Amino acid sequence: MAKKFWINRQIRVPEVVVIDEQEQNLGVMPTQQAIELAESKDLDLIEVAPLAQPPVCKIMHYGKFQYQQSRNQPKPKKVETKGLRLSFKIGQHDLEVRQKQTEKFFSQGHKVKIDLRLKGREKAFQDRAKEVMEQFLNGLKSYKIDTPLKQMGGTLSVIISKK
Prior knowledge:
By secondary structure, the protein is of the alpha/beta class. The protein has 4 helices and 8 strands, in the order ββαββαβαβαββ. Strands 2-1-4-3 form a 4-stranded mixed beta sheet.
C-alpha cells in the first residue's frame, strides 16, 4: 500500500525515483528533495513501488490515488442461489433437463435450491418423493450438499453447490 511521505518523515531510503503529475520521469533524486518538490506543488509524494530499487514515488493528490486504487480492486463475485422445482410425477427426460440446468448453474458459480412440492394425496407418499429427489441427485456429476434434505409442510428441499 502506498504511503504519504510528508506524514512519515522517517524515511529509510536516501534516494527515490520520482514521477511528476504529468507522468514525466524526473529521475533519481534525494528523498528530502522529492518531498520538498511535492510540497512546493501543493501535492503529495506517494510511494507506488516500494520494492523497486530505488523505490518509485509519484507526485499527485493522495485522494486521487486512493480513488484509483479502489477502482482497480476486483469486486467480489456474488454467489446467487438459483431455484429448481421438481414435481412428484416428473418424467425421466424432464429430470435430465433439470440436471443439465443444475450443471449450468454450477458452471456459473451459483448454488442451487431444489424443491419438490407435494399436492393433495401426494403428501401421503413422501417415501416416493424422497426417491425422486435421490434419483435427481444421483444423476448429477459432482456436488456437495450445503443444506440437507428437509421437509417443510408439503415441500421437500435441499441446497447443493459444486464440489
